Structure formats: C-alpha cells, structure tokens
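User: tokens in, sequence out, please.
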C-alpha cells in the first residue's frame, strides 16, 4: 500500500501520521507527567513482530505548564536544564516469551532489571473517537494500583502501547491515568525502516553498571537502600540532620505491586 500522511491539529500541535506496515512500527509519543514539578518529554516505541522497545528521551524534558507546580515549590526557580539528562532508558517487552527487561536507575547508576510479566485485564467500552485518521476505541484497566483509560486503534494490529501498557487488540495511541497525572499521546507513526535497536545488545543501549540482571523487587529494595545511604552520608558531611524526600506512591505510575497483595 502506498504510504500516505494524515495531519491532525491536536491541542495546538501539528501531528503527522504515516500508514505503517503491520507489526513493524516506529511510534513517537509525547509524555506529560504532573508531578510536584510537572514536566513533559518525548519517547519512541519500536515494534518488531512480538517484541517492543520503549525508549524515553530524558534530554527532551521541559516544564509542563498544563499542571501547577506543588504549593511548597511555587516560589522556587526551576532551571529547565536541570530537568534534562543525557540518558534514554528502555523497556524491552517480549509478549511471546512473556519477558520484560528494562533499565532501572538508582541515583546516577543504571542496572538491568527483569520485571514481572503482569497480565492486563481491559474493559473495552463502546466509546470511540478519531485520532490521526484512525478510529480509536476506549478501554480501561487498573495496573499496579493505578487506573488507566486508553484509546486503541483496531486498524493497527499491534497489542503494544506506551510504557508498560499493552494487551489490547490494536495499538494504543493515547492513554492517561484517572487523575491525569500521567498522559501519553502519539505524535507520529511510521514503518520501522531499521531493526538495529533490536539487534543491539540491550545492556549496551544504556551505560549500565553491571550486566547482571536483577529482579524488579530487588531493584526497588536496592533503590531505597541507596537513597537512605546517600542521605546519611550527606548528613554526616554537613553535620546537620537531613530528611530523605521521596515522591509518594500516589505520584508514581505504580502505586502497589503484586508481591505486596
């Protein structure tokens, strides 16, 4: 089929879509995170048959004016360059092998982390709307304690979506959690011209500290311990009492894990 392009003006942004070859796609997304300091960034989803690689471009981070800054930070000057980090962590999902491998960051170090392949239970509704020339259907689910509403395109036969979201009979073009703290919107769809990223050793896509793979549960424990140790060391250096400040789970994509149930 001859490629063609849809142009969609959405929220003041010009989005272009190219009719892709089935199951081998490269999709660009805009991400919006309404945290204490709201920001937005870009990400790419690569799909080759039953495997996807989700890559977030942290060097594209910038303040998001669509959400207010937390009350206790309103008077603080936010340097835009502080948000930008020259890293692009990935999540590799294999729906055939039912495996998820990702880059997990602890302070300035990155590790190879194996996540659990948790099945999604979607409720597909009768609601529909057009996104980039595709008819999309609304579906809802709860994943690790957070509710999500997704719009998927049945005409694009891929069960993948942004971040870890998957399992619908069509590519997810738009998704947000019920509180609108996390929003993912497609900006471009095109065929996958090169599968180089799939042939590259996953451990080399990011400068990881070790090629040893650890479980997600162990990674979260290590993350907590590393942050506690960092705060203790800072307290000793400054000879003052310091308090560790972490984002509550209510401000994280994952609120509750399956091993905690």
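Assistant: Sequence out:
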């Amino acid at each position: 089929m001859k490629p063609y392009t849809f142009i969609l003006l959405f929220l003041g942004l010009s989005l272009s879509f190219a009719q892709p070859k089935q199951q081998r796609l490269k999709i660009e997304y805009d991400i919006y995170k309404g945290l204490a300091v709201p920001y937005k960034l870009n990400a790419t989803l690569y799909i080759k048959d039953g495997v996807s690689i989700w890559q977030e471009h942290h060097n594209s981070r910038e303040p998001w004016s669509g959400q207010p800054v937390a009350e206790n930070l309103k008077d603080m000057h936010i340097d835009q360059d502080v948000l930008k980090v020259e890293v692009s962590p990935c999540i590799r999902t294999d729906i055939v092998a039912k495996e998820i491998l990702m880059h997990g960051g602890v302070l300035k170090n990155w590790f190879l982390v194996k996540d659990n392949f948790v099945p999604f239970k979607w409720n597909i509704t009768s609601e529909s709307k057009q996104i980039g020339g595709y008819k999309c259907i609304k579906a809802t689910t709860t994943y690790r304690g957070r509710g999500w509403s997704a719009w998927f395109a049945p005409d694009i036969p891929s069960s993948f979506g942004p971040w870890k979201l998957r399992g619908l009979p069509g590519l997810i073009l738009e998704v947000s959690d019920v509180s609108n703290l996390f929003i993912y919107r497609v900006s471009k769809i095109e065929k996958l011209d090169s599968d180089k990223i799939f042939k590259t050793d996953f451990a080399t896509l990011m400068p990881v500290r070790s090629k040893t793979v650890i479980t997600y549960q162990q990674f979260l424990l290590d993350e907590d311990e590393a942050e506690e140790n960092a705060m203790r060391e800072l307290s000793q250096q400054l000879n003052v009492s310091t308090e560790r400040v972490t984002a509550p789970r209510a401000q994280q994509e994952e609120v509750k894990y399956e091993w905690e149930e």
